[in-house]
Amino acid sequence: MEMNSRFLQACQRQPVDVTPVWFMRQAGRYMPEYRAIREKYTLIEICQHPEIAAEVTMQPIRALGVDAAILFADILLPVIPLGLGLEFVKGEGPVISSPVRTMDDVQTMKPFDAESDLGYVMEAIRILRATLSGIPLIGFCGAPFTLASYIIEGGSSREFLKTKTMMYSAPEVFHALMQKLSAVLSDYLVAQIHAGAQVVQVFDSWVGALSPADYEAFVLPYSQKLLKSAEATNIPVIHFGVNTTTLLQLMKRAGGNVIGLDWRIPLDDGWSLLGDDVAVQGNLDPALLFAPRSEIRTRVHDILRRANGRPGHIFNLGHGILQHTPVDNVKAVVDTVHEYSAVKANVL
Ligand code: CP3
Fold first, then answer.
1. Who has the most CB within 10 Å: 104, 276, 278, 315?
2. Which residues of the chain carry a pLDDT beneath 50?
């Protein structure tokens, strides 16, 4: 059953009954049942209690009818055992109390062992595999660049000025940090796979801030190390970024069986740039979930027409679900994707 799930089939570019759909950030504050749990626990506490993390992972499975579950965790969790200090401050987002700015800072980052340092993530995966039936489980981590940007800036950023200043002014420090993160993240992602994750996604959410030349010099080798270590386990790997129209071919070279597309590029144009030897995931603008139902349907149909029934399309948003998204509209996307792609499959 699970082996034949439409999500796993699409990741491998095999034909499917209907187009599979899931959403980045499908668990979170837009759901009342998530907010109820968040009244009692912080985000980090949820992640560190495997039963609660598993319960939150299941909320969108029950509420939406999606074709995949994504482990509830956060890309910033490895920052805690690395000894850099992590807190989510209300209204401010993530804050890293000891950011990395010098070679000395890189060298004094703590050694990392995923199984012992983030054992609670592996435990949540094991609980979920025993709970989910027929719905595949996605594990994930941040890509080295996106994680480095938080670690260097000390939190979220608009311009990535500290990150780029390190790249251009102290490249040996930047490369040493990326080297360390690619090893940490490879260990973490492979541990998730060994615990039972059936697909993994690497989030390089902020890499679109870079030019292709800088991507190639400063990011590609490290993302490649991470993606190849996951691919070596023979499970599907999704490689995702935002604002990546000019980077797509380099991202494909770095690795991944599935490449995530944001909404800035029409799905068929993105797929042409990549070639038909990879699957694609995307790419509805998350803001469309605030539009009238008829507009949502029109835009979903447009994306499915661009995919045109080719094997290897996974429907998703171009980035994560936004905070005040109406749940009913998310459910409407799931139903529209399933209904329209079933009709198209019958016509073909
Ligand atoms: O997708 C899912 O349902 C799984 C859970 C998930 C979370 N974070 C939980 C979370 C996933 C896949 C992530 C990934 C993540 N975390 C990314 C990459 C994806 C993307 O959106 O680009 C990034 C950049 C982060 C870092 C992060 N975590 C930020 C910037 C924030 C927002 C801080 C804020 O105050 O809004 C978080 C917090 C976070 N992680 C929330 C959730 C559901 C917000 C809700 C909460 O505080 O309870």
1. 315
2. 1
